[in-house]
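Need tokens for this chain, all 558 residues.
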Amino acid sequence: MNVSGGQATDFDAMIVGAGFAGMYMLKRLRDDLGLRVRVVERGDGVGGTWYWNRYPGARCDVESLFYSYSFSPELEQEWEWTERYPTQPEILRYANHVADRFDLRADIAFSTSVDSARYDEAQECWVVSTDDGAVSTARYLITAVGCLSASRVPDFEGMDTFRGPTYHTGQWPHEGVDFTGRRVGVIGTGSSGIQSIPQIAAQAAHLTVFQRTPNFSVPAVNHPLSAAEIEQTKSEYDQLRQAARMSPSGTNPADPIGQVLELPEEVRTREMNQRWEYGGAGFMSAFLDTAVNPEANEVVAEYVRDRIREIVVRPEVAELLIPRDHPIGTKRICVDTDYYATYNRDNVTLISVRETPIDRITERGVVVAGELYEVDDIVFATGFDAMTGPLNAIALEGVDGVMLRDKWIAGPRTYLGIASAGFPNLFMITAPGSPSVLSNMMVSIEQHVDWIADHIAYAREHGIIRTEAEPSAEEAWGDHVNEVANLTLYPRAASWYMGANIPGKPRVFMPYVGGVGAYRALCDEIAGDGYRGFILTRRNDVSAGADIDAKTPVSAES
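Here are the structure tokens for all 558 residues:
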């Protein structure tokens, strides 16, 4: 069987990545559309980010009951989460359960990486080369590589001289690491650092934390889920899921109570107290104006700073931990368990490397301002080349030999964060220009997968052999993404949202901040209008005597 009657291909679709996006994409295309599908996965198991990120304390910042698939009511009801915020091992068990339940492994090539993919215009297919030397062809190529999968380690002088083990939180040994009796240095205090530091401190003889930029974090207030909580949520899944799909963030936090600057101080303080005690990222949705008004933002930021001062016993340490260089929420808010309290431990030292950066790494440890901090192990919690990094790691070649990484040299350019002009039949799940990392990723993944599957089904039904974003539609979408971002405070932070953690990377706000619900409605409208903004090309009816290579563009009205 060939999609839309085109030239013979090895597969109708190839998918890069077997995380939650790749697994669901496989199920939709294979089971619902009956296509021949191959998934290529560099790990030896499913799970994506939860396969790789096994560092101590790794945990999702979305509540487990909603960090899960909604496509199968049976799956929803049968799986039992144990905690409010799921740990990495539990999420990975869930991913494996899904793979087994829907027999997904049969169509996944594990321990295989895609090196390059080239669109062959003559054959109207993608030619995909993998690191095992195999070359395959597919009508459609779909990237499900994740937004945070290209690990980054800064190029410190002397890295190769250090005599002890080094680890990156995004490439953690599967067998785990025992830090008992060890002197450990952690470089970085982003999300993975904030989650791992309390766990490492509880085990190590001494922990030295090297912090360049302090980050805002709110308590998770994690707890085991009771049978009553689980039963209540499962009985209301339909309504709760639908509300999340149409919400700004893909979650269901309590509604904002108004604009912070228009509320009496005692009212806004009471609301923040309640949300702080309840825990979770819903703290950031207390007010309507936090993300757009600097004065309103400062009220919330100062509240969190005061909590840090209350928790951390030594004032000089508390001041080092207090963020002052970015509005709260303009970097993804961290959700922690005992992070700030960890700095009250006698075996923890905090070293600021903001004014005096790390000089070098020696065989014995880390040198800052000429002083050596001796450590036995170094943990790099230094994050990722976010969003574009995983895509640029693949040599993706479109029409006229244009490489995606070259097209994106000044910043990513997409239509809806799904397609890119000049790259026919290439779909990207949660790419730059979509809500992705500003949302509950499971909600955004399902929305993208369903939309892409529907687009491919539409193409088959209408005899379309090639679909690609119109350059003008892509340009207009990029302008809109930037316009909406500039209405907020997000661009004021030197965040990985902006690519600021990668030297030389263009400073462009990559995700779409317009909201999950609004974005979904727009995508549905575009699909309902015959996929407005896409150039749809079909073959003429061969039975009518037309040249098989003749192509007819399809307008939105066709």
